[in-house]
Amino acid sequence: MRIGFRTLKTAIGVSLSVLIAGQLGLLNFASAGILTLLCIQKTRRQSFNAIWERLLACLVAIAVSGLLFELVGYHALLFVLIFLILIPLCVKLRCTGGIASSSVIMMHIYVQKGLTLSFIGNELMIILIGLGMSLVVNLYMPGVERQIQELRRRIETRIENILRELAVYLKDGTSLWDGRELLELTALLEQARALGIQTTENDFSGRRSVFYTYYETRRKQVDILKTMMPLVSQVDARVEQGQRIGEFLDDLADHWNTIPGGRDYHERLRAIREYHRELPLPETREEFETRASLYAMANELERFILTLA
Protein backbone atom coordinates (compact mmCIF):
# COMPACT_ATOMS: atom_id res chain seq x y z
CA MET A 1 0.00 0.00 0.00
CA ARG A 2 1.40 3.38 -1.07
CA ILE A 3 0.87 6.37 1.22
CA GLY A 4 0.53 9.64 -0.69
CA PHE A 5 2.18 12.88 0.37
CA ARG A 6 -1.17 14.58 0.96
CA THR A 7 -2.20 11.70 3.24
CA LEU A 8 1.03 12.10 5.20
CA LYS A 9 0.49 15.86 5.56
CA THR A 10 -3.07 15.29 6.73
CA ALA A 11 -2.01 12.77 9.37
CA ILE A 12 0.75 15.03 10.71
CA GLY A 13 -1.33 18.21 10.57
CA VAL A 14 -4.35 16.72 12.35
CA SER A 15 -2.19 15.17 15.07
CA LEU A 16 -0.30 18.41 15.72
CA SER A 17 -3.53 20.45 15.83
CA VAL A 18 -5.09 18.16 18.43
CA LEU A 19 -1.83 18.05 20.41
CA ILE A 20 -1.40 21.84 20.51
CA ALA A 21 -5.05 22.53 21.34
CA GLY A 22 -4.96 19.88 24.07
CA GLN A 23 -1.74 21.25 25.57
CA LEU A 24 -3.35 24.69 25.79
CA GLY A 25 -6.21 23.18 27.80
CA LEU A 26 -8.93 24.20 25.36
CA LEU A 27 -12.43 22.79 25.59
CA ASN A 28 -13.41 20.57 22.64
CA PHE A 29 -9.74 20.62 21.60
CA ALA A 30 -10.10 17.62 19.26
CA SER A 31 -12.19 19.76 16.89
CA ALA A 32 -9.02 21.59 15.87
CA GLY A 33 -7.99 18.39 14.10
CA ILE A 34 -11.29 18.29 12.20
CA LEU A 35 -10.74 21.83 10.92
CA THR A 36 -7.22 20.94 9.80
CA LEU A 37 -8.49 17.82 8.05
CA LEU A 38 -11.08 19.79 6.07
CA CYS A 39 -8.59 22.42 4.89
CA ILE A 40 -5.75 20.32 3.46
CA GLN A 41 -6.17 20.45 -0.32
CA LYS A 42 -4.21 19.48 -3.43
CA THR A 43 -2.75 22.94 -4.09
CA ARG A 44 -1.80 26.03 -2.11
CA ARG A 45 -4.48 28.15 -3.74
CA GLN A 46 -7.19 25.60 -2.99
CA SER A 47 -5.96 25.41 0.60
CA PHE A 48 -5.99 29.20 1.07
CA ASN A 49 -9.52 29.36 -0.35
CA ALA A 50 -10.65 26.54 1.95
CA ILE A 51 -9.11 28.24 5.00
CA TRP A 52 -10.74 31.58 4.17
CA GLU A 53 -14.16 30.01 3.60
CA ARG A 54 -14.03 28.08 6.86
CA LEU A 55 -12.80 31.05 8.86
CA LEU A 56 -15.56 33.29 7.54
CA ALA A 57 -18.26 30.61 7.94
CA CYS A 58 -17.18 29.87 11.52
CA LEU A 59 -17.33 33.54 12.49
CA VAL A 60 -20.78 33.89 10.93
CA ALA A 61 -21.93 30.72 12.71
CA ILE A 62 -20.74 31.99 16.09
CA ALA A 63 -22.62 35.26 15.59
CA VAL A 64 -25.87 33.75 14.26
CA SER A 65 -26.14 30.72 16.53
CA GLY A 66 -24.90 32.57 19.61
CA LEU A 67 -27.45 35.35 19.15
CA LEU A 68 -30.40 33.02 18.50
CA PHE A 69 -29.54 30.59 21.28
CA GLU A 70 -29.25 33.44 23.78
CA LEU A 71 -32.50 35.06 22.63
CA VAL A 72 -34.69 31.98 22.16
CA GLY A 73 -33.02 29.34 24.30
CA TYR A 74 -30.85 26.31 23.75
CA HIS A 75 -33.37 24.06 21.96
CA ALA A 76 -32.42 21.45 19.35
CA LEU A 77 -35.26 22.53 17.04
CA LEU A 78 -33.70 25.97 16.83
CA PHE A 79 -31.08 24.48 14.49
CA VAL A 80 -33.76 24.59 11.78
CA LEU A 81 -33.93 28.38 11.97
CA ILE A 82 -30.17 28.72 12.40
CA PHE A 83 -29.40 26.76 9.23
CA LEU A 84 -32.16 28.58 7.32
CA ILE A 85 -30.26 31.78 8.09
CA LEU A 86 -26.69 30.47 8.01
CA ILE A 87 -26.71 28.65 4.67
CA PRO A 88 -28.08 31.59 2.59
CA LEU A 89 -25.59 33.88 4.35
CA CYS A 90 -22.71 31.56 3.46
CA VAL A 91 -23.93 31.41 -0.13
CA LYS A 92 -24.04 35.21 -0.30
CA LEU A 93 -20.57 35.49 1.26
CA ARG A 94 -19.24 32.71 -1.01
CA CYS A 95 -18.08 30.54 1.86
CA THR A 96 -20.34 27.50 1.43
CA GLY A 97 -17.31 25.22 1.78
CA GLY A 98 -17.18 26.22 5.44
CA ILE A 99 -20.74 25.21 6.39
CA ALA A 100 -19.67 21.80 7.73
CA SER A 101 -16.83 23.31 9.76
CA SER A 102 -19.05 26.02 11.19
CA SER A 103 -21.57 23.37 12.23
CA VAL A 104 -18.93 21.87 14.53
CA ILE A 105 -18.54 25.23 16.29
CA MET A 106 -22.32 25.63 16.57
CA MET A 107 -22.59 22.23 18.26
CA HIS A 108 -20.01 23.36 20.81
CA ILE A 109 -22.14 26.41 21.62
CA TYR A 110 -25.27 24.26 21.91
CA VAL A 111 -23.61 21.75 24.23
CA GLN A 112 -22.10 24.55 26.35
CA LYS A 113 -25.57 26.15 26.73
CA GLY A 114 -24.09 29.50 27.48
CA LEU A 115 -22.06 32.08 25.58
CA THR A 116 -19.33 33.88 27.48
CA LEU A 117 -16.29 35.84 26.34
CA SER A 118 -13.97 33.11 27.60
CA PHE A 119 -15.88 30.45 25.66
CA ILE A 120 -15.85 32.57 22.49
CA GLY A 121 -12.10 32.95 22.98
CA ASN A 122 -11.82 29.16 23.36
CA GLU A 123 -13.63 28.59 20.06
CA LEU A 124 -11.57 31.21 18.27
CA MET A 125 -8.39 29.52 19.47
CA ILE A 126 -9.63 26.16 18.15
CA ILE A 127 -10.39 27.79 14.80
CA LEU A 128 -7.00 29.52 14.62
CA ILE A 129 -5.07 26.38 15.57
CA GLY A 130 -6.99 24.13 13.17
CA LEU A 131 -6.84 26.51 10.21
CA GLY A 132 -3.33 27.71 11.02
CA MET A 133 -1.93 24.19 11.09
CA SER A 134 -3.48 23.42 7.70
CA LEU A 135 -1.85 26.58 6.34
CA VAL A 136 1.56 25.55 7.68
CA VAL A 137 1.51 21.99 6.31
CA ASN A 138 0.24 23.19 2.92
CA LEU A 139 3.06 25.68 2.46
CA TYR A 140 5.22 22.78 1.32
CA MET A 141 4.23 21.01 -1.86
CA PRO A 142 6.27 18.16 -3.38
CA GLY A 143 8.20 19.00 -6.54
CA VAL A 144 6.78 17.76 -9.84
CA GLU A 145 9.76 18.56 -12.08
CA ARG A 146 10.53 14.92 -12.80
CA GLN A 147 6.88 14.25 -13.63
CA ILE A 148 6.81 17.29 -15.91
CA GLN A 149 9.95 16.22 -17.79
CA GLU A 150 8.62 12.71 -18.35
CA LEU A 151 5.27 14.02 -19.57
CA ARG A 152 6.98 16.43 -21.96
CA ARG A 153 9.13 13.64 -23.36
CA ARG A 154 6.13 11.39 -23.99
CA ILE A 155 4.09 14.15 -25.63
CA GLU A 156 6.91 15.33 -27.89
CA THR A 157 7.85 11.79 -28.95
CA ARG A 158 4.30 11.16 -30.11
CA ILE A 159 4.03 14.44 -32.00
CA GLU A 160 7.29 13.60 -33.77
CA ASN A 161 5.96 10.13 -34.66
CA ILE A 162 2.76 11.58 -36.09
CA LEU A 163 4.70 14.01 -38.29
CA ARG A 164 6.83 11.12 -39.57
CA GLU A 165 3.82 8.93 -40.32
CA LEU A 166 2.14 11.72 -42.27
CA ALA A 167 5.39 12.21 -44.19
CA VAL A 168 5.62 8.48 -45.00
CA TYR A 169 2.09 8.45 -46.40
CA LEU A 170 2.67 11.49 -48.59
CA LYS A 171 6.00 10.20 -49.93
CA ASP A 172 5.10 6.53 -50.40
CA GLY A 173 1.34 6.71 -50.96
CA THR A 174 0.69 4.11 -48.25
CA SER A 175 1.12 3.60 -44.52
CA LEU A 176 0.40 0.94 -41.91
CA TRP A 177 -0.02 3.52 -39.16
CA ASP A 178 -3.05 2.94 -36.92
CA GLY A 179 -3.22 6.40 -35.34
CA ARG A 180 -2.45 5.09 -31.86
CA GLU A 181 -0.20 8.05 -30.99
CA LEU A 182 -3.06 10.49 -31.52
CA LEU A 183 -5.26 8.65 -29.02
CA GLU A 184 -2.38 8.51 -26.54
CA LEU A 185 -1.77 12.24 -26.98
CA THR A 186 -5.34 13.00 -25.95
CA ALA A 187 -4.81 11.22 -22.62
CA LEU A 188 -1.34 12.74 -22.13
CA LEU A 189 -2.62 16.25 -22.76
CA GLU A 190 -5.33 15.76 -20.14
CA GLN A 191 -2.61 14.80 -17.66
CA ALA A 192 -0.59 17.84 -18.73
CA ARG A 193 -3.60 20.11 -18.24
CA ALA A 194 -4.16 18.80 -14.69
CA LEU A 195 -0.47 19.19 -13.86
CA GLY A 196 -0.40 22.67 -15.39
CA ILE A 197 -3.33 23.76 -13.22
CA GLN A 198 -1.64 22.24 -10.17
CA THR A 199 1.64 24.09 -10.77
CA THR A 200 -0.24 27.34 -11.42
CA GLU A 201 -2.23 27.06 -8.19
CA ASN A 202 0.93 26.33 -6.21
CA ASP A 203 2.56 29.55 -7.44
CA PHE A 204 2.17 32.52 -5.07
CA SER A 205 2.53 35.00 -7.94
CA GLY A 206 -0.89 34.07 -9.35
CA ARG A 207 0.51 33.89 -12.89
CA ARG A 208 0.06 30.89 -15.14
CA SER A 209 2.90 28.44 -14.79
CA VAL A 210 5.37 27.84 -17.61
CA PHE A 211 4.13 24.27 -17.89
CA TYR A 212 0.51 25.37 -18.33
CA THR A 213 1.64 27.59 -21.21
CA TYR A 214 3.51 24.57 -22.59
CA TYR A 215 0.30 22.51 -22.38
CA GLU A 216 -1.70 25.15 -24.27
CA THR A 217 0.89 25.23 -27.07
CA ARG A 218 0.95 21.45 -27.42
CA ARG A 219 -2.84 21.30 -27.40
CA LYS A 220 -2.97 23.76 -30.31
CA GLN A 221 -0.38 21.70 -32.20
CA VAL A 222 -2.30 18.47 -31.66
CA ASP A 223 -5.53 20.14 -32.82
CA ILE A 224 -3.73 21.15 -36.02
CA LEU A 225 -2.46 17.59 -36.54
CA LYS A 226 -6.00 16.28 -36.10
CA THR A 227 -7.14 18.68 -38.82
CA MET A 228 -4.33 17.55 -41.12
CA MET A 229 -5.02 13.83 -40.88
CA PRO A 230 -8.20 13.71 -43.02
CA LEU A 231 -6.51 16.02 -45.54
CA VAL A 232 -3.58 13.62 -45.88
CA SER A 233 -5.94 10.66 -46.29
CA GLN A 234 -7.56 12.39 -49.28
CA VAL A 235 -4.27 12.29 -51.21
CA ASP A 236 -4.91 8.95 -52.92
CA ALA A 237 -1.76 8.49 -54.96
CA ARG A 238 1.89 9.41 -54.95
CA VAL A 239 2.05 12.87 -56.49
CA GLU A 240 5.10 15.04 -56.82
CA GLN A 241 3.54 17.91 -54.84
CA GLY A 242 2.67 15.53 -52.01
CA GLN A 243 6.21 14.18 -51.93
CA ARG A 244 7.55 17.72 -51.51
CA ILE A 245 5.30 18.30 -48.51
CA GLY A 246 6.19 14.81 -47.25
CA GLU A 247 9.90 15.66 -47.33
CA PHE A 248 9.11 18.93 -45.59
CA LEU A 249 7.22 17.04 -42.85
CA ASP A 250 10.02 14.51 -42.50
CA ASP A 251 12.55 17.26 -41.88
CA LEU A 252 10.14 19.10 -39.60
CA ALA A 253 9.81 15.94 -37.46
CA ASP A 254 13.57 16.08 -36.79
CA HIS A 255 13.71 19.72 -35.74
CA TRP A 256 10.21 20.99 -34.83
CA ASN A 257 10.99 21.15 -31.11
CA THR A 258 14.49 22.64 -31.34
CA ILE A 259 14.17 25.50 -33.82
CA PRO A 260 13.14 28.88 -32.34
CA GLY A 261 10.25 30.41 -34.24
CA GLY A 262 10.37 27.79 -36.97
CA ARG A 263 13.51 29.51 -38.33
CA ASP A 264 13.62 28.93 -42.10
CA TYR A 265 10.54 26.70 -42.28
CA HIS A 266 8.35 29.66 -43.17
CA GLU A 267 10.49 30.34 -46.24
CA ARG A 268 10.62 26.69 -47.25
CA LEU A 269 6.85 26.36 -47.01
CA ARG A 270 6.41 29.56 -49.00
CA ALA A 271 8.68 28.12 -51.72
CA ILE A 272 6.54 24.96 -51.88
CA ARG A 273 3.42 27.11 -52.24
CA GLU A 274 5.00 29.10 -55.06
CA TYR A 275 5.94 25.88 -56.83
CA HIS A 276 2.34 24.64 -56.59
CA ARG A 277 1.02 27.91 -58.03
CA GLU A 278 3.25 27.55 -61.10
CA LEU A 279 2.00 24.05 -61.93
CA PRO A 280 -0.48 23.59 -64.80
CA LEU A 281 -4.15 23.53 -63.84
CA PRO A 282 -5.49 20.09 -62.81
CA GLU A 283 -7.05 18.13 -65.66
CA THR A 284 -9.20 15.67 -63.69
CA ARG A 285 -11.50 15.82 -60.68
CA GLU A 286 -9.17 13.53 -58.68
CA GLU A 287 -6.19 15.75 -59.42
CA PHE A 288 -8.17 18.84 -58.43
CA GLU A 289 -9.24 17.28 -55.10
CA THR A 290 -5.67 16.17 -54.38
CA ARG A 291 -4.36 19.66 -55.13
CA ALA A 292 -7.03 21.20 -52.88
CA SER A 293 -6.15 18.84 -50.02
CA LEU A 294 -2.45 19.64 -50.37
CA TYR A 295 -3.21 23.36 -50.38
CA ALA A 296 -5.30 23.05 -47.21
CA MET A 297 -2.55 20.94 -45.67
CA ALA A 298 -0.01 23.68 -46.38
CA ASN A 299 -2.29 26.14 -44.57
CA GLU A 300 -2.37 23.88 -41.51
CA LEU A 301 1.40 23.45 -41.65
CA GLU A 302 1.78 27.21 -41.60
CA ARG A 303 -0.40 27.35 -38.48
CA PHE A 304 1.73 24.61 -36.92
CA ILE A 305 4.96 26.48 -37.63
CA LEU A 306 3.54 29.63 -36.03
CA THR A 307 3.14 27.71 -32.75
CA LEU A 308 6.83 26.80 -32.57
CA ALA A 309 8.69 28.46 -29.71
UniProtKB/TrEMBL annotation:
It comes from the Bacteria. It is a multi-pass membrane protein. The keyword Glycosyltransferase does not apply. GO terms for cellular component: plasma membrane. Residues 145-305 form the Putative aromatic acid exporter C-terminal domain. Its main location: membrane. InterPro entries: ArAE_1, ArAE_1_C, ArAE_1_C_sf, UPF0421. It is found in: Cell membrane. The chain crosses the membrane at residues 12-39, 51-69, 75-93, 114-141. This is Putative aromatic acid exporter C-terminal domain-containing protein. It comes from Paenibacillus herberti.
